[in-house]
Amino acid sequence: MAKLIITIDGPAASGKSTVARLLAEKLGASFLDTGAMYRAVTLAAIRANVDMTDEDDLLEVMATTEFQFSAGQGKMAVCIDGIDVTEQIRQPQVTASARHVAASAKLREKLVEMQRQFAAGEEKIVTEGRDQGTVAFPNADMKFYLTADPSERARRRQAELRAKGDIESLEQIQGAIEQRDKSDEGRAAGPLRPANDAIVVDTTDLSVEEVVARLLRCVEEKCQTKD
Ligand code: DC
Fold this sequence. Notes:
This protein has helices spanning 16-27, 34-47, 55-64, 92-103, 105-120, 132-136, 150-163, 170-186, 208-226, and strands at residues 4-9, 30-33, 67-71, 76-80, 83-84, 124-129, 142-147, 199-202. The protein has 227 residues and is of the alpha/beta class. Strands 2-6-1-7-8 form a 5-stranded parallel beta sheet, with helices on both faces. A 3-stranded antiparallel beta sheet has the order 3-4-5, with helices on one face. The structure holds 2'-deoxycytidine-5'-monophosphate (DC). 2'-deoxycytidine-5'-monophosphate (DC) binds at residues 12, 34-35, 38-39, 98-99, 102, 129-132, 184, 190.
């Protein structure tokens, strides 16, 4: 198991990925984007044309597909059966359907196992998702929970989409975000919630740099008290 495990959980578009990546860079740690795993299984299921609400079908897809996750430049590189799908897993259809994969307790168990295996091979790791501090790594050295107002998260997601040339209204984006919050918080397995020992950071009025600096300070303080 890695010597330093930092978990960052939080709702959709709360800035977890960017912050986790930058924090990992500063700490010389590996970065694990667990949402990319749920997205990869979702894309494989869409391509296999299975019933997304049938857990057995989803498990079959998982068992018959080869997934590869590696810490690429700036983001997790993902391959399905040897083909790079790093960009494709971000398509809106995948985003919308991932909740079915996320709702399956059996699939979650398998993905959590893969996450722990990934961590086992690393010296230091910053891992982000919805259940990293609560389920995957309950004994993590440091746990954070990032949140922000839905309207601010919608604004950030809109800017991200604009940069890719996609135009969507704020109302539409905020509606989709609130729907994802509901489904992330409401599922029985690995629901989205802060771990009891997580530091909760509301990022609504903070820049990415400010959030990273705050998290880094917490990690440094913790490391000092450990020494
Ligand atoms: O963070 P993201 O938007 O890339 O996540 C994609 C989907 O995976 C989303 O529906 C939430 C789900 N997810 C999860 O259930 N547990 C995780 N640890 C990470 C993501």
